[in-house]
Design goal:
The protein has 326 residues and is of the alpha+beta class. The protein contains nine helices and five strands, in the order H-H-H-H-H-H-E-E-H-E-H-E-E-H. It starts with a helix and ends in a 36-residue tail after the last helix. The C terminus is likely disordered.
């Protein structure tokens, strides 16, 4: 029995593993690496502080005390640099601190007001000379044509602050349009096409205006008045100028003014008030007309759009039939 108990006794095998780091393991390597990194950053910071000037160190201190103020206002060390980025140097040849404005002057743009005014005066003189030459060409073209010579008394050419103004006046015995119509007469069409050919020689922009007299318009079409009639006649004249060779992009403004600007204020019903005005604008007039709404300017009263169609009927019976047609 004793021999059997010895046979049943368990056998215990102890295996000893060699090597390893004991209880602490390998965590000390991570701690040492963090320590070395911190020391490197510390010495790098000391080197940077030692290589900067007093003004730069004060700027750095101000930035950390109030970063928003320094970013907006600037200061020594942050705004003394001529670089577009605050605190950044622009001269790579400097090894100590930033390049300050005392060392490098930032470029400044200066405007010679007298020289600019002299150039503008020369431009105005040259432009006026060009318009005077155009005026002479138009007068010569009208005088040399037998067909246009008959309308010479109806044409007015004058220089205005806006440029050269060519006015074609109506006449009782030689109207430009049929009464109450925007259909151009054949001789008026020929004159406008000749003018379009001459106006194509200059680069100036064109403003076209239609005018009527002060007599009320009589028509069966409700809402159609002198405003619409003057606008339609101005646009019909524009088409004839373009047919004569004037580029369409040279026409800047076409408007109907009805009887708001009379040629003969003493006689509002005069035939001379029915006219077409062609203004060859100078540069100042063009800039004034193209100015944005944010820059208001004084302008004569004008109506570029028609009156609303829906108008209240007058209380008294209309008496427009007594007036002659336009």
């Amino acid at each position: 029995m004793a021999g059997d108990s010895k046979k049943l006794q368990p056998i215990i095998i102890k295996r000893i593993r060699k090597g390893g780091h004991g209880k602490h393991g390998g965590a000390w390597k991570i701690a040492y690496a963090d320590f070395v990194t911190a020391m490197m950053a510390f010495f790098l910071l000391m080197w940077l502080l030692g290589s900067t000037t007093e003004g730069d160190r004060k700027g750095i201190a101000d930035f950390f005390n109030s970063p928003l103020k320094v970013s907006l206002v600037g200061g020594s060390g942050s705004g003394d640099s001529s670089h577009v980025v605050r605190g950044g140097g622009a001269d790579l040849s400097r090894t100590v601190g930033q390049v300050k404005q005392g060392d490098v002057q930032a470029p400044r743009k200066t405007i010679n007001l007298q020289a600019m005014q002299a150039v503008q005066a020369e431009q105005r003189q040259a432009e006026r000379a060009r318009l005077e030459e155009l005026k002479a060409k138009v007068e010569e073209a009208i005088a040399s044509s037998q067909k246009l010579a008959s309308m010479r008394s109806q044409i007015r050419l004058d220089m205005t602050p806006d440029g050269l103004r060519i006015q074609i006046l109506d006449a009782q015995n030689r109207p430009m349009f049929d009464s109450g119509s925007a259909v151009v007469k054949p001789y008026m069409r020929e004159l406008l096409q000749h003018l379009g050919e001459k106006l194509a020689d200059v680069p100036n922009r064109i403003k076209l205006e239609g005018h009527t007299d002060a007599q009320p318009f009589s028509s069966g079409n409700r809402g159609y008045s002198n405003w619409e009639l003057s606008s339609d006649r101005a646009n019909a004249s524009r088409r004839e100028l373009v047919a004569g060779g004037l580029p369409e992009d040279r026409m800047l403004l076409v408007q109907g003014l009805a009887s708001s600007l009379l040629f003969d204020a003493k006689d509002p019903a005069s035939a001379a008030n029915r006219r077409i005005s062609i203004i060859v604008m100078n540069r100042e007039a063009e800039d004034r007309l193209l100015r944005t709404p944010a820059e208001p300017f004084e302008a004569p009263p004008a109506a570029t759009t028609a009156l609303p169609i829906a108008q209240a009927e007058p209380a008294a019976p209309p008496a427009t039939e007594r007036f002659p047609l336009r």
